[in-house]
Design brief:
Rossmann fold; 4-stranded parallel beta sheet; 4 helices; alpha/beta
Length: about 130
Amino acid sequence: MRTAVVIVGHGSRVRETVGIYETIARLASESSGYEVRVGYMKHHRPNLVEAVEGLIAEGYRRIVVVPLFIVPGLHVRDDIPVLLGKKDGHVPEFGYSKVRAPEDVEIVYADAIGADPRLAEVVVDRVRKALNGR
C-alpha cells in the first residue's frame, strides 16, 4: 500500500513562516523515504484537505496525518479529526470542508508532537547559541 505523510501546520499571516514547514517536510521525507507534504489549517495553501486529497489523487492509499503542534489544543483535539472524518462535529469555518476519501483509502491520525524529550535538546541548543552570541 502506497503510504504518504501530511504534516499539519497552523499557518501564519507572516509569509516567511511558510518555508519552515516545507523544510521539515523535506527533512522528514529524506529520513523516512515517505512522500511528505504540508497541509495548513489557516492562512496558506494547500490547506489540510487539499494536501490529503492531492495525495489520494496521486494514488496514495494510506495517508498518515501528523499535527505539527506541541500543545494538543482545539485544532489537534477537534478540528483536524473532524476534517479527516475521524470525529463527529461541526466543520471549522476555515473556508473548506471535510476530506473526501474513497473507501480504499486509510487515513491515520498520529499524535501531536507534544512534550517529546528531543524538544528539550533543541531548547538547550538554542540557549547555548544565545549565550555564545550567535
